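comment on this one:
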Amino acid sequence: MFKSIRWKLTATYLLLLSLTIVVLTLAFIFPMQQYYLTFFERNLTSQAQLVRQLVLNSPELNADLQQQVDKWAEDIALRITVVDAGGAVFADSDEDPAKMENHRHRPEIATALAGGTGRATRFSTTTNRRLKYVALPVTRQGEIIGVSRIAIPVSDVSAIFDQIKEILGLAILAAALVGLLVSFKLSATLTQPVEEITQVAGKIAEGRFRERFSPRTDDEIAVLGKTINSMAEILEGKVNEIERHRSRLAAVLDNMVSGVTVLNGKGEIEIINLAAQKELELEQPILGRHNLEVIRNHKLNDQIKQVLHSGQVSSFEMNLLHGRKKVFLVHLAVISAAEHTDGIIAVFHDITQLRQLEQMRKDFVANVSHELKTPLTSISGFVETMLDETEMDVKTREKFLRIMAKETSRLDTLIEDLLELSRIESGRVYNEQDTVDLGEILREVTEEMRPRAEEKGLSLNLSLTEGLDVQGSVSGLAQVAINLLDNAIKYTPAGGSIDVHGHTTFGDVIIDFRDTGVGIPLEEVERIFERFYRVDKARSRKLGGTGLGLAIVKHIMENHQARIKVDSTPGVGTVFSLKFNKA
């Protein structure tokens, strides 16, 4: 509190007031003291002159004079002494003259007997007090016949001075109190605007930019207040502008598909957008933590260090294993401020799907090459054999021709499936969708596939409820049913059963294809919809499968905004569940 401007001003005013009072007191007390001393001496001199006249009026020094001295001393409250020319005390108002010693050698008496005015302040052995004396010579016809002396106790003079000092002290105290109040009030008047400005500045510092100072004067403080008001207005505008830019930047970052992070020179994350949090599968808290602690990738951390050191842009691929493998293309660039590296920005592009597609393309080319080469090799081998064996018997030739016809049919089926898959992926088929009765399509396909099932000794059952209307393509939905039933027939041993059940629930149409076949291992389920993927490759080729049937089913279902689910137990069977929106 005592460090405030108000108290400093008050202390300054009080110091100045105190110095002024001290100077005025010193300038007043000493002249006044001298004045009163002079006044007392004059008064004593006047009284001594009156006593001298009293002595001169007496025809001679006798007892009557002692009585007059006593009476006069009582009236004027002073000590009166009359001494003859020899120094003997003739009359004294305080003591019996007979008992008093000769005063000829008293300083004031000696001066008076010499014809001057004697003055002295000394201790009186007669009265045992310190007295102030004034003595005058008494002359008659030019001859000094004695001395008239007046004395006053110094304590009486000091008492008067003490009273004056007391009055002066009270006056000084009153002046000091008044000065204190005036100083406090004056300092408050001067500092109140400063305090108001301080409060306004504090609120502005807290971000309350609409606070304003209301000046009541036109002095320098008012100018300062107006300047702070202008500063607050400018700050509000700048902060609002920064906030708008920040909001825009946040909106841009949060709506970016790619992940973006900003790291400081220590490699700690300062900014991260939603895409980065989601794609990198990061857990809170993130901000303020080191990238190695959050993202846990040493390659990324090493690249960040290198870019911070070199200042060069870097691009590289990064693999992450958070549950499943992800591949990111990462771009790193430094953030510079005033020719100083302030941090680094990292942009993460998820190229996992791209790399998967590239791998699928490679696998597709390899699989197509293999699938085409196998029957072609077989056909080529038989053709060469038949050309070399010109005398081959008819039975063997027919056998070779049947095998060649089978391989040719396999090639034709493979090419047809490839073309069908290509047409589906390009969107050239099954685009014209109408409200169709899925139950009727299933009845027709089931009846079409029943002879094959019965030929293998399988039971094919169909159970449908009413109202299986969906939005779709008749040929596309029929192809789905054909492919699923074809797979079920191929992979269900003789004596098994295939059940097709259709019903509605909660506005959806559900179709289940259930078989008692060999089943699919759990680790293989997710891959059965890939092109050319076979659970049992040798058996699939033996049964005439191309490995594209389920891939075609998947794409047709996606084209119909429908979903397919697989539930399989090896040795028990498989269920393919189709889910459509009811039309």
The domain at 355-422 is CATH 1.10.287.130 (Helix Hairpins). The chain has a mean pLDDT of 83.
